Amino acid sequence: MKVLITGGAGFIxxxxxxxxxxxxxxxxxxxxxxxxxxxxxDAIEFKGNSVRGDIRDDHLxxxxxxxxxxxIHMAAALGVSNIMNSTMESISVNITGSExxxxxxxxxxxxxxxxxxxxIYGKNPKQPLSEEDDRLVGTPQNIRWSYSDAxxxxxxxxxxxxIQNNLKVTTVRFFNTVGPRQSGKYGMVIPKLVESALKQEDxxxxxxxxxxxxxxxxxxxxSAVTKLLESNKxxxxxxxxxxxxxxxxxxxxxxxxxxxxxxxxxxxxxxNEVYPVGFEDMQRRVPDTSKIENLxxxxxxxxxxxxxxxxxxxxxxxxxxxDAK
Length: 325
Prior knowledge:
alpha/beta, UDP-galactose 4-epimerase, domain 1, seven-stranded parallel beta sheet, three-stranded mixed beta sheet, 17% strand
C-alpha cells in the first residue's frame, strides 16, 4: 500500500511515518519543514520518498494523492506562538491547504484521515467534551481562536465532501498529544517545562497554574489513528483522541521537577507578559473518548508519569548531543 502523509516530518507525523514503514508500506511524506524537521526523519531512519513542498500547491498535491492509496493529512500551522505571531499565514495554510488536500482526495477517491484538534471546542465549560458538543469560542478580536475557526472550517469541508462526493474521510481531534521529538518552541507545555527542569532553570507557569489539561502519549495517539483506519465504520465520523488523568499546570510543573530530580522552582507569569494582545486561555479541557473505544476498543495505555519520563529521556539525549558539539 502506498501511504502519503502530509506533515510527515512533524511530531505526530514522524511517528505515523515510522509505523507505516515498519509494517512494510511504501511511505511518501510532503512537508515544508517549517515545524517538521529532517532530524525527525533521521531519528526514524526514514527510507521513503520525502517531498519538500507546500500543501497549497494544487498540482503537487494532486499528483502525490493520485499516486497514493491512503492519505493522512497531518500538515498544519499549529502552536499558540505560531497562531499569534503569524496569523495570516496560519489561516491560509490551515484553510486553503486543507481544501487542496480534501478536494484532491475526493477527486481521486482516496481513503483519507485528517488531523483536527481539541481547539475545536474553544472554551466550552462542559467537561468532559464529546464529539457532539457545541463550539464556544471568543471574539474574533482574540486571534487565538483563529486556529479553532480554521480547523472547524476544515472539518466542515470534510463533512460536505463526505456527504456530496462520498469522500472516505475520518476526522481525529487530538487532545494535547505529547512525547519524544516534540519541540517546546511553539508553546507545547510539557517539553518546555522539561527542558527548563533539566537545565535547572525556573519553570514558567502562565497565570496561577490552576488551568487543567489531559495529556496523551504520542504512541497511544498513533494506535488510535491506525485502529480507526482499519474500520470502514469510522468513515464520515469524528473522534476524540486523548489521554487519562486531568492535571493542573501547577501540578504538572511540580511532577516534572520531581521526576527530573531538578532543583528548579516555579515562577508564575501573567499571560500579557508572554503573549501579544489577542490571547485567551481556557480553564479546563478534558476529552470523552468513549466513541472511539466503543468502535475499536482503543484506550490510552500510558499515564502522565510515563509521558513525562519519556520526554525527560528524550530531552536529556538532546541536551547531551548539544553539549557534545
